[in-house]
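Worked problem 6 (solution included).
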Amino acid sequence: MACALVCIALGLHGAGIDVVPANVPAPALSARPARRVALRNFGGFAGPYTRGWRRVGRVSVNLVEVVRSNTVGRLGLFPGQVVWLVVIRDVSIPDLGPPGRPHHDFVGWLGVFVRTDSPRYIVATSF
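Solution. The predicted structure is:
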């Protein structure tokens, strides 16, 4: 497992999701459309920097197999499922704490799980 994927897997474990690299033939949906799906739906969160500056390596795409997931329902992730994991780094994540208290957005990573058979995301989680 590459070092970057190890760091991602450790972060996702804290969010209740465990993944390993998938060892399968190339899926119907390639990495490029999976990246577009994630950025189209969640790219707006990735804006903590000034307009003229771009960070290199901000988005990574990995083909993974889900080992464990705390998502519920048939539309969530399930063990044995092979998905594209698109990680968007340095996104502004809103603090949705209890009402009446001050809320402060924080900067973190966002993992977007995209189907391998159609250009749709399954679930996204911050970590």
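Discussion: The chain has a mean pLDDT of 84.
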